[in-house]
Design goal:
Elements lengths: L8 E11 L6 H8 L20 H6 L2 H17 L8 E4 L5 H11 L8 H5 L5 H10 L5 E4 L5 H16 L3 E7 L16 E8 L8 E8 L9 H9 L6 H8 L4 E6 L5 E8 L2
Parallel strand pairs: 2-3, 2-4
Antiparallel strand pairs: 1-5, 1-6, 4-5, 6-8, 7-8
Helix pairs in contact: 1-9, 3-6
Length: 271
Amino acid sequence: MSAAATNELLAYVTGIGVRGPGLADWPQTEAVLSDRQPYQRADTLLSAPDTLPPTERRRTGRVVRLAFAIGLEAARQSDTDPARLPVVFASSGGDGDNCHEICQTLASANRALSPTRFHNSVHNAPAGYWSIAAHTQVPSTTVCAYDASFAAGLLEALTQIAVHGATTALIAYDLDYPPPLRAARTVPAAFGMALVLHASPQPRALAQLRVCLDSGAADGIGHAELEALRAAIPAAQGLVLLEAIAKRQTRSVNIAYLEPQTLRVEVIPCA
């Protein structure tokens, strides 16, 4: 029976990018999730994207650096030109650092905001910088659904693939907030993951995803320290997919979405 006949959305994963505490890239994350390498907690390392012109590079904060790091890793792994790649960006809170700085300025005697702070305040700022760096004119979409943002982004990317048939990337990311915002939004660390998704089988495909709405409880992963990240960071909800891919398991997992709904994702290894 076809995916359309069962109301499933289908795609093939050909590229993965990861950055998080103690997770420097997808190969290291794969080794940790498949129990071939011990996990060692460390700060999330983010460097300024060298694909941006110097002026724009100086204006970027951690959220743009995180989105670029995972997006470019996934695109390179899948051998996909970023200039031709539609992207869905998904984040539960965007740039918390910039939000903090704006709040501090507005609470001070001198409430004049810098133009850089202002233009970085919009939720789709990473998408704008991405279009500059990639020299792309293909469309991008930026979504936010609070704690359900990863699932919302995955649904959006898969829907675009179903409608247009074009290879599409999901770039999902979240930052920790500085105090005092951290007391209200306790994201513990910066984490992001990206997937390059195709409509049809590919030689480089790592796994097939078959996705539909469900109402079961969200699944966790077997690694205690990474499970704590999954439970606390919306973008890290996707770790259950990465664990199945890393272990080359055929497995159905549920990812938190808008209660009482979840996303049921069947992960089928391709290699």
